[in-house]
Specification:
Largest sheet: none
Order of helices and strands: HHHHHHHHHHHHHHHHHHHHHHH
Number of strands: 0
Helix content: 55-70%
Number of helices: 23
Radius of gyration: 24 Å
Length: 365
């Protein structure tokens, strides 16, 4: 920025970020700051100075709409840096910063709730940061508990001013934590069942991406696989349907498929986002970690869905994931002592060889 002057910023503009400053000066100064955080130079300087972070954290509760919107915009830009996220979670003068943002997002009349969701998504990307945020959520569970957050996320048109799609990204980041995954899969809460329909939510790829990521993370918990595949949850059709196209199968193959995958419309389209397709396949791959999971997926004939997807797929990374899954589905069952693939140690030399083969595949045409 040609007019970026740190000394002027500290001496002349910082005082105008105070709530006690005249409103017109506060608005003008914050507009400048919001623009400054949109540049690398500005972000780096402001991120290194906690006095600015404290001032911005103060202004997200400002009574003027223009002020708190620009404060949120600046904080969203600044939270692109991992270290800044950590600093924001540890602000001396604002120890309840995350709780304040969450309470604002969960109010049904918040006009900038989407901005708050984006900020929470950024703040929680790092696993350590997500752990700190979960501690806050647990402490204040009466007002900002996971139950409440998921209820709001699953209630369409909860806020007429916001879509809250990025709340899915935030929840996905929180499921990096084992405790959060177990909460989502608590058999007495019916949480994961409320999330499943959003794998087909056409209005927003952001919401679909967040939900699919949550499901993929939950599939890492092998102790829940039988329950996830049971009628109580029935996760398999929700993972498969976005990957299925309009192809027709013979009667024998069709009848083996889950009911929701049978006789799809000729207009049926696959998930258009390659990263979401990859996460769906990764979830299926995780479900193959146990013998019961592999046998169930084979019984449900998901191979034919993967086979047709492989013919259609153009993204090399997704194609590699499909092939890995197909190898498991059509391969022989391992010896009893290797039934749980996640508990099987792969020799280092074989890991390196497989990684090299994957790299070569991804480089190919």
């Amino acid at each position: 920025m040609s007019d970026f002057n740190p000394k002027q910023l500290d001496e002349e503009l910082l005082p105008f970020l105070a709530k006690s400053a005249r409103l017109d000066l506060r608005v003008t100064t914050l507009q400048y700051f919001a623009g400054l955080t949109g540049t690398d130079e500005g972000r780096q300087y402001i991120s290194r100075n906690k006095k600015y972070l404290e001032a911005l954290a103060d202004l997200i509760e400002d009574s003027d709409g223009a002020v708190f919107k620009d404060a949120y915009t600046a904080l969203i830009n600044l939270s692109a840096y991992r270290d800044t996220c950590w600093d924001l979670l540890k602000l001396t003068d604002h120890p309840t910063f995350v709780a304040t943002v969450l309470k604002y997002v969960l109010q049904p009349d918040s006009v900038f709730a989407d901005g708050g969701c984006m900020l929470l998504s950024n703040l929680s990307r790092d696993e350590n940061c997500a752990s700190v945020i979960m501690e806050t959520i647990t402490k204040e569970s009466d007002s900002i508990g996971l139950d409440r957050i998921i209820q709001v996320f699953c209630t369409e048109r909860y806020n007429s001013n916001a879509t809250l799609h990025y709340l899915g990204s935030f929840l996905s980041n929180l499921t990096q934590i084992p405790g959060t995954r177990k909460f989502v899969m608590d058999r007495n809460r019916c949480v994961i069942q409320r999330l499943l329909p959003f794998t087909q939510y056409q209005a927003s790829c952001v919401r679909r991406r967040g939900v699919v990521s949550i499901l993929r993370n939950c599939c890492f918990e092998t102790e829940y696989h039988s329950w996830l595949l049971s009628d109580q949850v029935d996760i398999l059709p929700c993972l498969l349907l976005p990957l299925a196209g309009p192809e027709e199968f013979d009667e024998d193959d069709m009848e083996k498929l889950p009911v929701d995958l049978q006789y799809l419309e000729p207009t049926k389209e696959r998930e258009p986002e390659s990263d979401i397709r990859q996460m769906l396949i990764e979830a299926l791959n995780q479900l193959c970690a146990t013998k019961d999971g592999r046998l169930y997926l084979r019984k449900k004939n998901i191979y034919v869905i993967m086979r047709e997807l492989h013919k259609w797929e153009k993204d090399k990374k997704v194609e590699a994931a499909i092939l890995n899954l197909i190898d498991i589905l059509i391969g022989d069952e391992p010896d009893v002592k290797y039934e749980n693939l996640k508990e099987t140690d792969v020799p280092q030399d074989l890991q390196e060889r497989f990684n090299k083969m994957n790299e070569e595949f991804l480089k190919g045409e």
